[in-house]
Amino acid sequence: MNKTGPRASLLAITALSLGLAGCANMGMDTGMDNNTQRHTALGAGLGAVAGALIGGDVTGALIGAGVGGAGGYVWSKQMEQKRVAMEHATMGSGVGVVQTSDNQLKLSVPSDVSFDTGRADIKPNMRPILDQLASGLAAQANTELRIIGHTDSVGSDEYNDRLSMERAQSTRQYLVERGVSPRQIQVAGRGEHEPVADNNSDSGRARNRRVEIFVGERSVASR
Q1: How far apart are CA 47 and CA 56, in angstroms?
Q2: What totals of helices (H) and strands (E) does the chain contain, helices first?
Q3: Residues 163-181, buried b or exposed e (16+ Cβ, 10 A)?
Q4: Is 0.70 topped by the overall pTM?
Q5: Which residue segments constitute the domains of the chain, with CATH numbers given?
């Protein structure tokens, strides 16, 4: 099979991405703050390369460029307040609350808190956590949420893909009912494809059945 086309495209995209980063470092006058400009261009470039490596084609690279270029999350006072509030709300529950390297607040909600096996209806223990998460977000139009559902490896790919999406959608619906705008929330289902533990054990499968929620506040320059 002739792979010259995709390989050449990848090289071209890589060169373009490095060029964007280089232009940002030169501080071109586009009306943007130099730091914001540099970070956005560099993010787009790295995103393009990552997308191409993951997707194996030009489409993957372009998607990666869009994701990387979107960037621009800030860790503001209200984000720190939300982190502290979520740590208190989840204390002793097993829910992970961390600040990511790109300034998003990440909640990793295990199955014993979020959903029963094979179900997409939210368990009672998860409701106060989501109540706290929803608090104040309706008034923060520059705050975005991404909800990603995951499953273990039991069942078919099709079944797990559907179940993981249904779990993410249930979580979004609960937050919307508590005042968060649907426009602030994106959902995705990854099925069994991104495990964090070994699916060959009960404990590993339990860790893989989870919902991850990312909260990010956009800087004014990137909106």
Answers
A1: 13
A2: 7, 6
A3: bbbbbbbbbbebbbeeebe
A4: no
A5: 4-71 (no CATH), 74-222 (3.30.1330.60)
